[in-house]
Amino acid sequence: MSEAVDDEKGSDDAAASFQPLRGKLVRVAYRMLGSVADAEDVVQEAFIRWMDVDRSQVLVPEAFLRRTVTRLCLDQLKSARHQRETYIGPWLPEPMVEEQDDEDVTLPLMLALERLSPLERAAFLLHDVFGLEFEEVAATLQRDAAACRQLAARARTHVREARPRYQVEKARGLEIANAFYAASRSGDMKALGAMLALDVSLHADGGGKRSAALEPVLGLDAVLQLHEKLANLFKAKGSTLVRAGFINGLPGFVTREADGELQTTALEIQNGKVAAVYVVRNPDKLRHLH
């Protein structure tokens, strides 16, 4: 009986020290993996390991758990890379919808991170995004600090173009998102065209499970032609605005489409114009929004 009581007390102690850190750990895992479900699975696995550790010997639980989560993510990224290669159509990270924009890792930056090696990605996120010293990054990645500096520097070179140079004002971003929704659903191509950059691109992730363009749609004319066709479908079958907000740091909106499924649309805005449109339709990536 006393052994069962001790086990229960140990579980309670583990949960009490873990729970305040869960949000931070999910944030790290999501930035590494681009998947809400996978991030939550990794963090749960870290909790299971935390329960089995002699916690009295852990001086800084947050650092220990961040290392555990990062290493679990690195293991997962090795298999994820193959899944990306066999994915049907453009791959986009699972959308995180928030009230405020998240300026540290926007959707274009997450896509740029996909082109990095797992170690480069981890070094960049831990140092440049989460602000860890290179000694802590080195302990996490089990490399020396000089090697981690090189990993982060290489990553920085690759992702420099993906970091926003001119942050759109929040209220203005939501205003553009609402106007984009209204114009695209009503078929007002003149109003929509006025919002788009000449070299605008559209990326739609259906994952082979819902209809979506299998290649990015490039250029103002091509994007307008696509929306003109879609507007006829929207008017015939319906599309309902669920909410506007920030999707992976970009202004956008969530809709419920005619098939009853959710969809997210995120807008990358540069110099006051929509430079890229990111649409997630794959229902597997939208379950957490329900």
Highest CATH level, the class of the largest domain: Alpha Beta
Given as residue ranges, the uncertain stretches (5+ residues, pLDDT < 50) are: 1-6
Domain tally? 3
What CATH architecture of the largest domain would you give? Answer: Roll
Rg over C-alpha atoms, rounded to the nearest angstrom: 21 Å
Helix content: 40-55%
What sequence of helices (H) and strands (E) makes up the elements? HHHHEHHHHHHEEHEEEE
Residue-averaged pLDDT? 89
Instruction: Work out the strand percent.
Output: 15-25%
Structural class by SSE content:
alpha+beta
Helical run tally: 11
CATH topology of the largest domain: Nuclear Transport Factor 2, Chain: A
Strand order of the largest sheet: 1-4-5-6-7-2-3
Outline the structure in words.
- The structure is a single chain.
- The chain is α+β, with helices and mostly antiparallel strands.
- The protein has 3 domains: 1-86; 104-163, Winged helix-like DNA-binding domain superfamily/Winged helix DNA-binding domain (Arc Repressor Mutant, subunit A, Orthogonal Bundle); 170-289, Roll (Nuclear Transport Factor 2, Chain: A).
- It contains 11 helices and 7 strands.
- Helix 2 (22-33) packs across helix 3, helix 6 packs antiparallel against helix 7 and helix 9 (170-186) packs antiparallel against helix 10 (189-195).
